[in-house]
Specification:
By secondary structure, the chain is an alpha+beta fold. It has 4 domains: 353 residues, Aminopeptidase (3-Layer(aba) Sandwich); 108 residues, no CATH class; 104 residues, 2-Layer Sandwich (Alpha-Beta Plaits); 220 residues, Class I glutamine amidotransferase (GATase) domain (Rossmann fold). It contains 25 helices and 36 strands. It has a 9-stranded mixed sheet, sandwiched between helices. It is globular and about 90 Å long. The termini are far apart.
Length: 862
């Protein structure tokens, strides 16, 4: 009977809360005893509905923000970028009209806090604090952006001495939608599936959006991992504004599982990055007290110092910590629609919005009360950074590439955007048998305010206080770009080695050399954008060949494996037109193309040799849809489409079985499971000569389906004789995963999949525990893990043992076709430039790999 009464009471409470949610007005959200200016429109005045009744679309959100800036003298608005889908990204500046009149000088004075030479002279007692409010970087975590409507209304319309004092002492920056493309995708889905009478059943379509869902941006990237790599326009525009202002506090409003409550930082103390000062954690704790008080007042459950961490500096709530600010992560249990049943009752969309708005206000309250502490922390952070830099053993980092200036340029471009000073060497010098020149190298001196961020970019950390990570454990940027680099000690670096300061890195120009040719042109495959040039030639119908061996021309220049040859005769364009095409391609892609007068080379193969293989243009099918890891598929799509101008056909897994595969010669399987597609159809296509590229768990699916011959190493169970505490079970199991680390591999530089590489040692990113056994065929594994593979990041001893001397790539021969298996992701988050060529080589050169060099069926079954 008591159980029945409890159940009845719970149902009644849920229904009461649900009914209230359907009638929500502004009084549900706004603080009591505050009067509002009637001349400032409420959100419903412009939207036509109450906040939380529908999910705001990005165009509605943008219109409201623009209108508020027009009507309120407390608000200014600026567009800081455009998304891939051409939606505007806005930043609102909210403060008193008096502060607005002096905003340039306030901004400049605040920036001087980060300049140790000037910061001691500043009067922080009379300096405003700067708070950045960032909402809904994940589009299907919409309570943040919908709370932004309330935040801007409150800050524009609230009246009285308290709000005036807050605005006088605080510059408030509001980014109402960090991910407009994802937000719009999600809002469209849930609004389309909302009935007049709200359905709360979790099985309803409203709560189960279709692939790829609204979390990500246009190319299915998680923008909350892009603060450091800066591979997307949303991130680049936002970071420019971040450094223009150097905020003291930055909030990052997210959502989590429906059955959770509300989380605010700090996270797990042992998982803070060691470069973050201890005072940051103390300030975060103190700010947390304000959140707790505010949530207690409205009766919302919450927790802190659990689940989440502050380790990877590429996240929105962690990047500020290495820039003298305090980043705050909020995680609200998600209704994933308008109202959904949960273990805590019916969770309504208005309830989620109210918690986000409430903690917006508690953040502002804390920032105002702690203003001098926060300003002093920022000043002291940079003073301490300079102090550490002066005593640090590393005085500069140098990086570059002799044969591929584009990769070095792109890393320099990222570094410069983080307000880090970067230079060209004044003169050529050698270190560790590597030549660095003003043309091919860059130097980053460590004695500068951004010292801690520089260390975070370049360090190779392999020891940690904790063995669990919410995100990746390593991201060493020069390793990601596969560049030659070195940490220079004081005996090897002096300031007079610095040459031209790089204020705006420019893409190096290529050139066509050797004059006109009536015979042939050639370019080597070393350059990062060589595949883009080859694709351009294919698009123009120009016939090309690839050299599968080296050759030396009359002028003594040696051409490497993978050199692309363009004969002049037999083309569908005139020699003059061909030269113009090649000249433009060379200039735009940081590439040297050379005119050749004869095919009679003094050394190596001749230009008419059978070792010059004719290439067929790749016709690519990229699988997407249910079962596919959207992040990994998006990374492949972005690389091909956005960076290399290629045109993969995107086909959903549910359409594969009725798709005519004869139109394609390459099929790309990103990480995922593909149980819905026809194995027989795929295998028959491969046997007829197609190339399959499998990555991540797709490698396992291909092997299990009999479409590759790969064999995997088995993970041994960790045996223990002692009884272990139940409370430690999750952490013990988690420590056996690889959240993201950097491993060393070795390349066979003669293999088509290694064309363009010049160093047999290749850093590779790994985030799974799928390890392949080497093939008995001596030619089937062009990439192998070394005996001591860990370069940076965390790995358990068990996983290190599995990785040692395992295969990193395997080529299987299936009839006339090939299956190229890559357990690791060569396109990780778009900044892993160093392994992109492995993926692109698979697309362009998989067709020429000899079947006898691959693992065959009999090898697999021996």
């Amino acid at each position: 009977m008591m159980k029945l009464r409890a159940l009845t009471l719970a149902v009644m409470l849920c229904l009461c809360h649900f009914a209230m949610a359907q009638k929500t007005d502004l009084s549900y959200y706004l603080p009591q005893n505050v009067t509002y200016n009637p001349n400032i429109p409420k959100p419903q005045d412009l939207l036509g509905y109450q906040v939380g009744e529908w999910h705001v679309s990005h165009d509605q959100l943008a219109t409201y923000m623009q209108r508020m800036a027009e009507l309120s003298d407390r608000i200014s608005i600026e567009e800081y970028g455009r998304t891939h889908e051409n939606r505007p990204l806005y930043l609102l500046t909210i403060t008193t009209p008096e502060n607005h009149k002096n905003i340039a000088s306030i901004k400049e004075q605040h920036r001087q806090l980060t300049a140790p030479a000037a910061s001691d002279k500043l009067d922080i007692k009379n300096m405003p604090g700067v708070v950045w409010m960032g909402y809904s970087v994940h589009g299907n975590e919409p309570s943040g952006s919908n709370a932004a409507l309330l935040a801007v209304y409150h800050l524009a319309a609230a009246q009285g001495p308290e709000i005036e004092k807050l605005l006088q002492e605080t510059i408030i920056l509001v980014d109402p939608s960090i991910n407009p493309d994802g937000l719009n995708r999600f809002a469209s889905w849930v609004n389309t599936h909302r009935g007049s009478n709200l359905v709360t059943d979790p099985n309803s379509a409203e709560f189960n959006e279709v692939w790829p869902r609204g979390r990500t941006n246009h190319y299915w990237f998680d923008l909350n991992r892009d603060w450091l790599p800066l591979q997307h326009p949303e991130s680049r525009g936002r970071l420019a504004k971040f450094h223009e202002w150097k905020p003291n506090v930055l909030t990052d409003h997210h959502e989590m599982g429906t059955n959770a409550t509300f989380f605010f930082q700090p996270g797990i103390p042992s998982r803070n990055h060691p470069l973050t000062p201890a005072n940051n954690f103390k300030l975060t704790q103190k700010i947390g007290g304000y959140h707790a008080k505010a949530l207690d007042k409205i009766g919302s459950l919450y927790y802190t110092e659990e689940s989440y961490d502050d380790f990877y500096y590429g996240k929105g709530s962690t990047y500020p910590d290495v820039n003298g600010a305090v980043g705050i992560l909020f995680e609200q249990a998600s209704s994933r629609g308008h109202a959904q049943e949960s273990s805590n009752g019916v969770l309504t969309f208005p309830f989620t919005i109210r918690n986000q708005f409430t903690t917006t206000l508690s953040t502002l309250e804390a920032a105002q009360a702690m203003r001098e502490e926060l300003l002093a922390h920022q000043r002291d952070f940079y003073k301490q950074a300079i102090k550490e830099a002066k005593s640090a053993p590393v005085k500069a980092y140098v990086f570059g590439s002799e044969k591929d200036h584009a990769r070095a340029y792109h890393l320099a471009e990222i570094i410069q955007q983080h307000q880090i000073e970067i230079y060209r060497p004044k003169a050529s010098f050698k270190y560790d048998n590597v030549d660095y020149t003003p043309e091919n190298a860059y130097i980053v001196p460590t004695n500068q305010p951004q010292y801690k961020l520089i260390e975070a970019m370049f360090e190779k950390r392999t020891t940690f206080q904790d063995s669990l990570f919410y995100d990746i454990s390593a991201w060493t940027l020069p390793l990601a770009f596969d560049l030659e680099y070195a940490a220079l000690p004081s005996r090897s670096f002096k300031d007079n080695q610095l040459g031209e300061k790089v204020t705006a890195p420019e893409m190096p120009k290529g050139e066509l050399t050797g004059g006109n040719s009536n015979y042939a042109y050639a370019f080597q495959w070393h350059a990062y954008y060589a595949p883009r040039v080859l694709n351009t030639l294919f698009e123009k119908g120009i016939a090309v060949k690839v050299a599968t061996d080296k050759f030396t021309t009359e002028d003594g220049k040696t051409y490497d494996y993978g050199t692309i040859l363009i004969p002049v005769a037999g083309q569908n364009v005139s020699p003059e037109q061909l030269r113009t095409i090649l000249q433009e391609a060379a200039q735009n892609n940081s590439l040297q193309i050379t005119a050749l007068a004869t095919g009679f080379n003094p050394k190596g193969i001749k230009l008419g040799s059978p070792m010059m293989r004719t290439l067929e243009q790749p016709k690519m099918l990229l699988l997407m849809g249910d079962g596919v890891n959207s992040n990994d598929a998006g990374e492949a799509w972005h690389l091909l489409d956005n960076r290399f101008g290629m045109k993969p056909t995107l086909v959903t897994t549910d359409r594969f079985n009725r798709t005519d595969l004869s139109k394609y010669n390459v099929i790309i399987f990103s990480d995922g499971s593909y149980n819905s597609i026809s194995r027989d159809k795929l295998k028959a296509w491969v046997q007829q000569g197609g190339t399959v590229i499998g990555m991540g768990d797709a490698v396992k699916w291909l092997a299990d389906s009999g479409i590759s011959n790969t064999i995997f190493r088995k993970t041994e169970e960790v045996k223990t004789q002692k009884r272990q505490p139940y409370a430690d079970m999750e952490n013990t199991a988690g420590a056996q995963g690889i959240g993201g680390a950097i491993f060393e591999t070795t390349l066979d530089l003669t293999h088509p999949l290694a064309y363009g590489y010049t160093d047999a040692s290749l850093p590779i990113f790994r985030s799974n525990t799928l390890f392949m056994e080497p093939s008995k065929s001596p030619y089937a594994n062009p990439l192998m893990y070394t005996p001591k593979p860990l370069m940076a990041g965390y790995s358990s001893k068990q996983n290190l043992k599995l990785a040692q001397n395992s295969a990193a790539i395997e080529v299987s021969a299936i009839g006339a076709g090939k299956v190229i298996s890559m357990p690791d992701n060569p396109n990780f988050r778009a900044f892993w430039y160093g392994t992109n060529k492995l993926f692109l080589n698979s697309i362009f050169f998989g067709q020429i790999i000899s079947g006898s060099s691959a693992r065959a069926d009999e090898d697999a079954h021996n």
